[in-house]
Structure formats: structure tokens, C-alpha cells
Design goal:
Length: 259
């Protein structure tokens, strides 16, 4: 019944009010974990924490402000600290590299990358002191595959892949694992604009070998495993959860006679 062994653990989820974040929160709470939801505002996280119960906590914290991350971690430490951190908060502003503004570039790196590193430091401090913990960083297939008008976003996601491997190397001897989960196409508020038009949705579905767009629950299920003691010998890895999307490249190349 408790195969994942997450009961009684404290899981901090950044971006806990977003599409994937809410699914993560429900999934961890469903396994008996105590959930701490970190997001810019309490608007979506407070009602969710109340619904989840089991000591669930919602903390307002802008992850581009180091002192706010420190304060959130201090609050969690008062209750014994985090066993698990899911770095999930992210922002995507479109912009090609020939004209992306420095403000947009810096904002995306600040939340998507520096926010992940500072959260790992702040929430990981107690894990290192106790000699046990698990970090799961939500990256993206964009971290490995360039995509149109998303240079800052993709660069931030690529950097997360190395941040996680670096953490795995440095913190492994101290009992803390670090892995990334790279979603493909997931329908959430972040990506909703892409699904407003049915034709675009169908074109997207047709490109995925599993022929569907992921749900946030598809991501949460994998994150549960990565964070759990069932993955206790897994660190420094990237798990691509994309329904096979990134296996499709050669299918785009014209090849007469090989239909
Ligand atoms: P979302 O927009 O629904 O949720 C993102 C959450 O992060 C929001 O609740 C937002 O308030 C929070 N956030 C943003 N900036 C923040 C800041 N400065 N401080 C605190 N919180 C902040 O997006 P979604 O889709 O749930 O994304 C979650 C993660 O998954 C992101 O890292 C995203 O890059 C990644 N991802 C999403 C994909 C998709 O297709 N939806 C595909 C690949 C990766």
C-alpha cells in the first residue's frame, strides 16, 4: 500500500499553484506526504493546501528574490525541514534571440535557473545536514531541442540539466539525489494558448508517437517515483516524459519509398 515510501515525508513544490504544480501536490498528498506549496501568490495555493490537509502549507515567495526563498526555507525548517524538493516553477516569454530584451532574458534565467539553484541551496541545507533527501527539477525537452522564439527559455532549461547533474555529483556522497524530469507537450495554463485552436492541437497530437498531449498527472506520476526511495540508486539522470515526441525527428525527413 505504501510502495513508494513517501508517507510522512515533507515535499516542497515550487510553482505549486500552476498546472503541473497542482498535480504534483495532489499526487504527493495522495501518497501521505506533507506538501508545502511555494508560489508567487497564495491565490491558488492556499485553497489547495486547505483541501489537501495533512499539515499542507502554502507559502508566498517570489523565486527571483533570494531573501524570499531563504524565508520560505526557514519556515519549513521550523517544522523539521524538507525531505523532497520539486523545482517546478517556470516562466516562458516568447522572443527570438536577435531581439530578446536583456530584461526578458534575465527574468527567465532568474526564475527558471537561478531560482532552482537557490531553492536547492535553501531547502537542501537541512537534507545535507540530515544526510538524506531528493531533488527533482522540472526541465523540458526544450533543454535538449531548440525551438522557435524561445532562446532564453531553452537555454535556462539546458542549464537545469547540468545544474542537476552537478548537484548529483556534489551532493551524492552526502545522501542527496538529484534528477530532472523533462516534459514534452503538456496542457497547462503555461501552454494553453497553443491549444485554443483545434487544428494546432491536432497537429501537435499527430507529432507525438503516443498520439496525445500529456496531462499534468503524467508528469506527477514520474516525479513521485524519482522523489521516492524506490529510486534510491538513481541520480544525475534526466527522464524525458514526452510520449516519444523527441524520437520523431527522422520522421520529418522526406524518404521516398520508405513511407
Ligand atoms: P504554469 O504556468 O501552469 O505554472 C507555473 C507556476 O510557476 C505558476 O503557478 C507561477 O505562478 C509559478 N511561478 C512563475 N514565476 C514564479 C516566481 N518568480 N516565483 C514563484 N513562482 C513562480 O506552468 P506549468 O506548465 O505547470 O509548468 C511547470 C513547469 O513545467 C515549468 O518549469 C515549465 O517550464 C515546465 N514545462 C512545461 C511544459 C508544458 O507544456 N506545460 C513543457 C515542458 C516543461
Amino acid at each position: 500500500m505504501n510502495w513508494l515510501g513517501l508517507e510522512g515525508k515533507t515535499a516542497v513544490i515550487t510553482g505549486g499553484g500552476g498546472g503541473i504544480g497542482q498535480a504534483l501536490a495532489r499526487a504527493f498528498a495522495g501518497q501521505g506526504a506533507r506538501v508545502v506549496l511555494v508560489d508567487r501568490t497564495l491565490e491558488r495555493t492556499q485553497p489547495l493546501a486547505a483541501e489537501l490537509g495533512n499539515g499542507a502549507l502554502a507559502l508566498a515567495c517570489d523565486l527571483s528574490w533570494p531573501e524570499q526563498i531563504e524565508a520560505a526555507a526557514g519556515r519549513v525548517d521550523k517544522d523539521g525541514g524538507a525531505d523532497i524538493l520539486v523545482n517546478n516553477a517556470g516562466v516562458l516569454h516568447p522572443g527570438p534571440l536577435d531581439s530578446v530584451s536583456l530584461a526578458d532574458w534575465s527574468m527567465m534565467l532568474s526564475v527558471n535557473l537561478t531560482g532552482y539553484m537557490l531553492s536547492a541551496q535553501a531547502f537542501g541545507k537541512g537534507m545535507l545536514a540530515r544526510g538524506s533527501g531528493a531533488l527533482v527539477h522540472v526541465a523540458s525537452v526544450a533543454g535538449s531541442e531548440p525551438q522557435p522564439a524561445s532562446g532564453a527559455y531553452s537555454t535556462s532549461k539546458a542549464a537545469i540539466l547540468m545544474l542537476s547533474r552537478q548537484l548529483a555529483y556534489e551532493w551524492g556522497p552526502r545522501g542527496v539525489r538529484s534528477n530532472t524530469l523533462s516534459p514534452g507537450l503538456v496542457r497547462t495554463p503555461l501552454s494553453e494558448a497553443f491549444y485554443a485552436d483545434a487544428t494546432t492541437r491536432e497537429q501537435r497530437e499527430a507529432m507525438v508517437p503516443l498520439r496525445r498531449i500529456a496531462t499534468p498527472d503524467d508528469m506527477a506520476d514520474v516525479a513521485l517515483f524519482l522523489a521516492s526511495p524506490r529510486a534510491s540508486y538513481l541520480t544525475g539522470q534526466d527522464v524525458v516524459v514526452d510520449g516519444g515526441l523527441t524520437q520523431s525527428l527522422m520522421g520529418l525527413v522526406p524518404r521516398p519509398g520508405y513511407a
